[in-house]
Write a sequence for this structure.
């Protein structure tokens, strides 16, 4: 008697997980289709040609580049240097020194011969006080704002208050931009005559690439398995997820590494929130919300061409911290704006995006985690339970490895950024193994993030920066 | 029951995996071929570069550079593309165009008829860049095609404009374009062809009208000053504003009085552009009001006032006195900005 | 007789600083096409400002003429211009050859002491004329 009941419970549980996975697989497949169609069109276009015509337009859409810096004396000069040679007619660079305790401030002042300037900064967003503002005497479009420590979001808000131009982008100190990055990312904004108010560029992984003086000399694949798996993850997230979502204005994340936003709308939405871990996503959600509330027909899009190369953790401990942090940030953004979920007032963001992020992105890892535990238990219990284990295993292969393999092929089919044949084969074979080791690991870490939140742990840990450029 | 499901699922998974492996095979072969081709193209480019430069820069006679194979053609195309971005002298352009026509004419003719959108677009880009006027007829044919994509059409129109095609005006009127698109096309017209559009200004749709005025602005076309003043007087709203902008760029008006009043307009755009005009023609009567506009509510107006003031011979002195005496922090800020522009 | 005529000519060191190798070779050839009798010419190309300064080329005795690209990674053209002009002990002639066309940029370079500014794309004849004009200004 007990056995039968027990079997029923297990059965229900297994089916629950299986059904969830099937729904997600269907959803991913749809997005994959949309992405394939999108990428196919632009395939093989001599893209360089397409930007010459816009030069005049670009002149009238200047961009402020805000670089929040906290204890970045190792790489700040390089980062600024690489930004200076960006291929865009009008821009300014605002380095915001967030109360660094090392030599970041002094190095900048010294290298670029900066002088104090007295400027009135309108506090359109509330921030921690600004101490001093500097301008370079050599390069008049380079500014340095020294402020009290307040965190990255606060530094961004200060930059936002100070900026002179209608568009801005936030850049991590350690990211390397492609020279045409701004042209590519501003193009949708200009094409749509400012109907598009924020545009995100694809982020690629810099580890393994040859970088000199803040420029990518040669694209290469790292040998570190963790890095390779992360590359696959990024390919999957960007090529499949974002293109598909962007097509229908469902995009909720513009990755923190690179994105251009309209200053006006960002300020209207209230700037970056300082008490959350995922401040970039949170701002995007808030902007979407504002747009819907004001019944304004503006869009947020994404450009599939890689424009920004950034360093990812090569070490498991740091990767773990990052994943925990991300998942918490995701939750915080979703929870703060939970009112949008299934709310028809917010259009497709409320009805499709939010549920997607809740069900797939947020709950997904938890359910997967339960699935993994379940699988292992079933194997131990033996007998008929093994069938459940196999069922779930096959589903998670589809869910994980197969889509990752597809993403790798999608990248090779359309963008062909990796130069060697062995690169693609390597990526493909590694993605085959995803279900067996990498996915369970990251899933576990993300659940850890949720757990930390539940028990009220708010420490983030330090992210040690290696320094990408030579 | 569950056995069947597992079997079903296993078959799906395995067949999908096989499919992906096959795709991988296909893509790796394709990639290997691409890499080989790319190397050949680069080698050929290195081989002919010095010769090509001699032909373009020194006018050496074209001799024996074959472009029969697609590799050689691609190499030539890429090499010429780079030169087009660097050199713009009359002689250089002509020689480059001749070289392109010699080698790539047939290639592009075929490409224009290709089924792939990207092939056609690339061909159009290069036809324009290399000024391949011998392909004019093909481009005209394309302009009459019904099921052509919008982006292609824009490009075709731009090429027709660049080649100063006689029947251009009729062609343009067939289409409804955005103001930016009209502008980039009209910019390329020579005086006579552009004149036709000026003459039929009143019949044009607003986007086209804005574009015509913007082109006059960008070219600072002083020959159209009376026309522009006319438009300013007879239209309202955005057209009036654009005409005012064009006048500011041209830097001439027949009588300044009506424009001085605009400095007091309730529309900030008009105040801004009027300020620009005053600075452009250096009308001293406008200076007192410009100083007031440094205290305007709108940043753009203040900024333009600052710019205009700095264009006067005693501009710096005026800005300095504002910096020292004004009670408005934003005005002082703006004065400081314009005193220090360009460090 | 030949040697003494040679010895009378001063040396003119022309340095090209551009991160694009193609433009480097082009400029070298364009300069070689020119007829510069007054001086004995020594042309060299550098990939970036740092390499140029490290080579200590400016220490060589003779007239110095730089053709500098505007937008460059390691050291921006403007930075090179400023560094070269800030050393008042030497008279170094600088021609900026830049893709940056905005009046602001051009004014900035001229204010910092650039002897001329040519935008890309450029005409070969025009460039050669401007180079000649600068060379004419040099004392023999």
């Amino acid at each position: 008697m007990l056995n039968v009941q027990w079997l029923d419970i297990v059965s229900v549980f297994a089916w629950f997980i299986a059904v969830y996975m099937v729904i997600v697989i269907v959803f991913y497949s749809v997005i994959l289709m949309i992405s394939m169609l999108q990428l196919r069109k632009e395939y093989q276009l001599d893209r360089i040609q397409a930007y010459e015509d816009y030069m005049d337009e670009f002149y009238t859409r200047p961009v402020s580049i805000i670089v929040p810096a906290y204890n970045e004396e190792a790489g700040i000069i390089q980062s600024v240097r690489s930004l200076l040679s960006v291929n865009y007619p009008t821009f300014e660079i605002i380095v915001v020194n967030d109360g660094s305790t090392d030599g970041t401030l002094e190095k900048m002042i010294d290298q670029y011969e900066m002088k104090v300037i007295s400027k009135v900064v309108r506090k359109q967003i509330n921030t921690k006080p600004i101490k001093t503002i500097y301008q370079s005497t050599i390069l008049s479009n380079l500014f340095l704002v020294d402020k009290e420590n307040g965190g990255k979001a606060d530094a961004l808000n200060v930059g936002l208050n100070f900026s002179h131009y209608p568009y801005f982008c936030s850049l991590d100190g350690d990211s390397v931009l492609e020279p045409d990055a701004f042209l590519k990312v501003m193009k949708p904004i200009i094409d749509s005559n400012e109907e598009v108010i924020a545009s995100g560029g694809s982020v690629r992984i810099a580890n393994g690439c040859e970088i000199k003086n803040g420029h990518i000399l040669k694209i290469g694949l790292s040998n570190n398995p963790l890095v390779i798996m992360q590359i696959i993850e990024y390919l999957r997230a960007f090529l499949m997820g974002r293109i598909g979502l962007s097509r229908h204005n469902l995009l909720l994340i513009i990755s923190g590494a690179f994105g251009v936003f309209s200053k006006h709308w960002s300020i209207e939405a209230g700037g970056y929130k300082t008490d959350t871990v995922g401040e970039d996503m949170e701002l995007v959600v808030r902007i979407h919300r504002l747009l819907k509330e004001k019944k304004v027909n503006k869009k947020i899009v994404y450009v599939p061409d890689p424009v920004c190369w950034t360093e990812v953790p090569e070490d498991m401990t740091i990767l773990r911290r990052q994943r925990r942090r991300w998942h918490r940030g995701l939750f915080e953004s979703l929870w703060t704006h939970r009112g949008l979920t299934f709310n028809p007032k917010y259009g497709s963001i409320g009805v499709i995006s939010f549920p997607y992020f809740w069900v797939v992105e947020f709950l997904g890892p938890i359910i997967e985690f339960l699935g993994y535990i379940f699988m292992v238990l079933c194997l131990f219990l033996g007998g008929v339970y093994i069938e459940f284990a196999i069922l779930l295993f096959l589903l998670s292969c589809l869910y994980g490895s197969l889509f990752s393999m597809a993403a790798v092929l999608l990248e090779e089919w359309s963008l062909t950024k990796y130069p060697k044949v062995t690169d693609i084969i390597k990526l493909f074979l590694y993605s085959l193994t995803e279900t067996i080791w990498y996915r369970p690991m990251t899933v576990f870490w993300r659940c850890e993030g949720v757990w930390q939140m539940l028990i009220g742990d708010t420490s983030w840990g330090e992210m040690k920066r290696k320094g990408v450029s030579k | 029951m569950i056995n069947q499901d597992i079997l079903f699922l296993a078959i799906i998974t395995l067949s999908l995996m096989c499919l992906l492996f096959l795709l991988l095979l296909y893509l790796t072969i394709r990639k290997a071929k691409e890499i080989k081709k790319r190397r050949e193209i680069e080698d050929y480019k290195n081989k002919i570069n010095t010769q090509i430069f001699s032909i373009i820069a020194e006018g050496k006679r074209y001799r024996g550079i074959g472009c029969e194979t697609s590799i050689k053609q691609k190499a030539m195309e890429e090499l010429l593309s780079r030169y087009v971005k660097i050199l713009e002298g009359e002689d250089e352009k002509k020689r480059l165009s001749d070289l392109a026509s010699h080698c790539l004419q047939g290639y592009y003719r075929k490409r224009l008829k290709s089924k792939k959108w990207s092939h056609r677009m690339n061909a159009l880009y290069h036809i324009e860049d290399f000024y391949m006027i011998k392909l004019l007829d093909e481009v005209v044919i394309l302009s009459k095609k019904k099921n052509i994509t919008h982006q292609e059409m824009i490009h075709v129109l731009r090429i027709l404009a660049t080649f100063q095609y006689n029947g251009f005006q009729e062609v343009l009127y067939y289409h409804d374009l955005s103001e930016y698109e009209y502008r980039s096309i009209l910019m390329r017209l020579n005086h006579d062809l552009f004149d036709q559009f000026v003459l039929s200004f009143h019949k044009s749709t607003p986007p086209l009208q804005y574009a015509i005025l913007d082109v006059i602005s960008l070219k600072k076309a002083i020959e159209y000053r009376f026309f522009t003043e006319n438009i300013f007087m007879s239209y309202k709203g955005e057209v009036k504003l654009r005409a005012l902008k064009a006048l500011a760029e041209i830097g001439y008006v027949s009588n300044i009085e009506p424009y001085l009043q605009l400095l007091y307009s309730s529309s900030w755009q008009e105040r801004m552009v009027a300020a620009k005009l005053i600075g452009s023609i250096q009308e001293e009567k406008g200076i007192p009001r410009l100083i007031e506009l440094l205290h305007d509510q709108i940043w753009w107006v203040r900024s333009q006032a600052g710019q205009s003031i700095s264009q006067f011979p005693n501009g710096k002195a005026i800005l300095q006195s504002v910096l020292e005496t004004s009670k408005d922090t934003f005005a002082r800020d703006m004065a400081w900005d314009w005193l220090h522009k360009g460090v | 007789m030949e040697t003494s005529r040679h010895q009378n000519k001063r040396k003119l060191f022309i340095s090209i600083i551009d991160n694009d190798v193609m433009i480097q070779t082009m400029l070298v050839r364009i300069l070689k096409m020119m007829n510069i009798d007054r001086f004995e010419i020594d042309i060299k190309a550098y990939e970036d400002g740092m390499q140029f300064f490290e080579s200590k080329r400016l220490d060589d005795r003779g007239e110095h003429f730089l053709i500098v690209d505007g937008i460059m990674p390691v050291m921006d053209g403007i930075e090179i211009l400023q560094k070269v002009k800030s050393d008042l002990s030497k008279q170094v002639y600088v021609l900026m050859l830049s893709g940056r066309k905005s009046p602001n940029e051009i004014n900035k370079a001229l204010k910092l002491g650039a002897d001329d500014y040519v935008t890309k794309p450029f005409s070969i004849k025009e460039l050669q004329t401007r180079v000649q004009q600068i060379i004419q200004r040099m004392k023999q």
About this structure: The interface with chain C takes residues 59, 81-82, 84-85, 87, 89-90, 138-140, 213-215 of chain A (CB under 8 Å). Confidence is low (pLDDT under 50) at residues 460-470 of chain A.
